[in-house]
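Q: I'm building a small set of examples for a reading group on sequence design. Run inverse folding on the following structure and report the sequence directly after it, with nothing in between.
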């Protein structure tokens, strides 16, 4: 299938707010081989290990799911970094896609929607993320969306029996709001 067809398929996916009832489907997605490798989740973990976090409604966060054929095929969110007043302007980006939906434009759609929320509705100045250094496709996507590398973490995570490095990347609001702007 060519790239245009892949992108057209991704445009047929419904992206919506994640609800607590979606937690089981998101947990299954995040623990799935082909998805788990790009996250800090563990394969073969009981689905319930993630349910409390996934069911929690955080009014300062934005969590999305992508649904195709009634199945959750993507999850992405902007999460409050901490409760400190001094870091309220920051969110941490997390994303996971089913392997058959990777490279088809769905990740870009989900992140673009999150960045619109951050820029236009939530007063977020800074979006941060960590990405495994051996994931060039994700790194390229983040760069195209305005993220820049800020540092390298050596031996950041265990992945398939090997320690992998991670890049810290961040994106600042391109046009921070002003009064009467």
């Amino acid at each position: 299938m060519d790239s245009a067809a892949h992108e057209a398929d991704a445009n047929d996916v419904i992206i919506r707010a994640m609800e607590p009832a979606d937690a089981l489907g998101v947990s299954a997605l995040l623990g799935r081989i082909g998805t788990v490798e790009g996250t800090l989740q563990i394969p073969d973990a009981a689905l319930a290990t993630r349910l409390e976090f996934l069911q929690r409604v955080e009014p300062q966060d934005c969590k999305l799911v992508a649904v195709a054929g009634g199945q959750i095929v993507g999850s992405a969110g902007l999460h409050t970094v901490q409760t400190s007043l001094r870091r309220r302007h920051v969110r941490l980006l997390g994303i996971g896609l089913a392997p058959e939906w990777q490279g088809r434009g769905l990740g870009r759609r989900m992140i673009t929607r999150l960045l619109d929320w951050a820029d236009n509705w939530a007063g977020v100045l800074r979006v941060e993320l960590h990405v495994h250094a051996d994931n060039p496709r994700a790194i390229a996507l983040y760069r195209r969306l305005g993220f820049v590398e800020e540092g390298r973490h050596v031996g950041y995570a265990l992945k398939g029996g090997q320690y992998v490095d991670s890049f810290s990347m961040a994106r600042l609001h391109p046009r921070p709001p002003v009064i009467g702007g």
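The chain has a mean pLDDT of 91.
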